[in-house]
Request: fold
Amino acid sequence: MSAEPEGAIGAVADTLLYLDGVSVSFDGFRALNSLSLVLAPGEMRAVIGPNGAGKTTMMDVITGKTRPDTGRVVFRADTDLTKLDEPAIAQLGIGRKFQKPTVFEPHTVWDNLLLALAGDRRPGFTLRARETAEERARIESILRTIRLSDHRARRGGDLSHGQKQWLEIGMLLAQEPELLLVDEPVAGMTDAETEQTAELLREINRTRSVVVVEHDMAFVRALGVKVTVLHEGSVLSEGTIDHVSEDPRVIEVYLGR
Amino acid sequence: MSPAPRALAVPLAVPVIVTGTAVLVAALALGGVAPAYIVSLYGKYLCYGILALAVDLVWGFGGILSLGHAAFFALGGYAMGMYLMRQIGPRGVYGDPLLPDFMVFLNWHALPWYWHGFSHFPFALVMVMLVPGLLALVFGYLAFRSRVSGVYLSIITQALTYALLLAFFRNDMGFGGNNGLTDFKDILGFNIESGRTRAALLVATGVVLSLQYVLARAVTRSRFGKVLIAVRDAESRTRFLGYRPESYKLVIWVLSAVMAGIGGALYVPQIGIINPGEFAPTNSIEAVIWVAVGGRGTLAGPILGAVLVNFAKTLLTGTLPEAWLYALGFLFVFVTLVMPKGLMGLVRMRRRDDVPGAAAAASAAKEATG
Ligand SMILES: Nc1ncnc2c1ncn2[C@@H]1O[C@H](COP(=O)(O)OP(=O)(O)OP(=O)(O)O)[C@@H](O)[C@H]1O
Ligand SMILES: [Mg+2]
Reply:
């Protein structure tokens, strides 16, 4: 990327996402407090922290749902995300899975994936769009990845909780984002499902960058990636899972309770 | 596994029934078997069916509860009424070759600029669609862009139709004020009072409703329609997928307004009058009730609801006029509480049960029987 124009914002080499002193307050309450975070291209990062630490709010800021009071969010070293709205950020290549799984309930698993597939989002296109062989092949392949091939014709609303979580991850994949933000993917999952989800995320991480928020420490350990601990809206500790779980401050505010 | 016959079989049922009954009623009346008045009565029901279908597109599929859709219907009606007024020519009470009676009565000496062109049928047809369409475009653009939705949107749609009601009541607006437009003589050169013209208008209404149904079906089943349903149920989720819900809402809103306008244009020559009362907020609310009764989010349901509720209204207002509003209110509460999917919900229940996993079996069965 040496072709980068001189003085481009960001100017942090080899960075996919750069949060620079981001603060957000709700009615005087600081949900994010001068939060800074750097994510390298291809990296998977686990974010942990107690309830109300600001993890979801961080994702809201990255995806354009919440505008920060101060700070910058720089994507690919040249785009300030705080200037864009949700659809623009999504089309730029950032996908998001919500804490509470939200799939389109009346639509089949197949149609949920079809709507998520990367492509033209304008009404003028979708009015005339026909399912192409290429799209079908993509959906088939995602169905295999998320292990829902046998459930393609079921309504999204009829899936089990764990299946909905997977369908949402599948919808993320269908968007072909460069960066995936995954908020508590294994909440409410059985141990077997949790194990499969960790495997799925590692598989996804082979081609994409991932930020995953999770409370389940066994799961975070299974991911085996760098961990960022948030507390009261800023970074408390960062490093390997062993490093952060021995950090006395982390033990005090989070693990030790 | 041949998709074509299945795709054809289902959408044909509604057009065949709608057009078939229209032709039947017209034939019975022309043959003297049935009284002449049922022709324009059934024509009125079918026009209401058009309005119901339009309301359902925005409410049932887009989640936009419009309490002002009768405004688009009435604007289409006024555009047609202006054409019909110009056809009267010198046959008015005052015999003015150019000016409609109400303008002569107001001592006007020239036709207002916005009345020009309406003597030509094709021009009037364009206006029937353009005027409601443009109003919907401007209104929808402003409302959806600033993310007005839910109750707030419903309230401003009511305000819209109420504002138009007040405006059209004014004599100086140039649309006949309180009395509206009436005393029509002919349409396309045919006597508007004759049984054959009325029969032709009824059949035309049946055909137009059928075409609108086929169009609505194609739109709601397209990928656009799937996005629209997604917007209805989880608007913010669609944003994070990269869709702009406001543009989807705007497209369906404008399409729906144009469809309603066409309904109004067919209504006026069959009823013989258009006045500001058509903008009354209660008209829009009634249309929502037809949709709820028939089945919101289905396409056949709202048509059925419009015809049945209005049939009931005709019966009841003939015998117990003061009871109608109570009956309507009761009907709405009953449907909302007991039959949330309306009449179509009852039909569907026998065809498909909602046991998880049955959907695949049901669609296979539909494929076999369809
Ligand atoms: N829209 C909002 N309005 C007011 N307060 C909010 C809003 N969103 C978040 N907050 C507050 O900001 C704080 C951080 O919330 P956030 O959802 O980011 O926490 P979290 O780390 O995701 O917690 P959890 O682990 O429970 O999901 C909380 O105290 C929350 O109540
Ligand atoms: Mg959270």
In short: Residues 93-213 of chain A form a domain with the Rossmann fold fold (CATH 3.40.50.300). The pocket of adenosine-5'-triphosphate (ligand 1) is lined by residues A 26, 31, 49, 51-57, 99 (CB under 6 Å). Confidence is low (pLDDT under 50) at residues 1-11 of chain A. The radius of gyration of chain A is 19 Å.
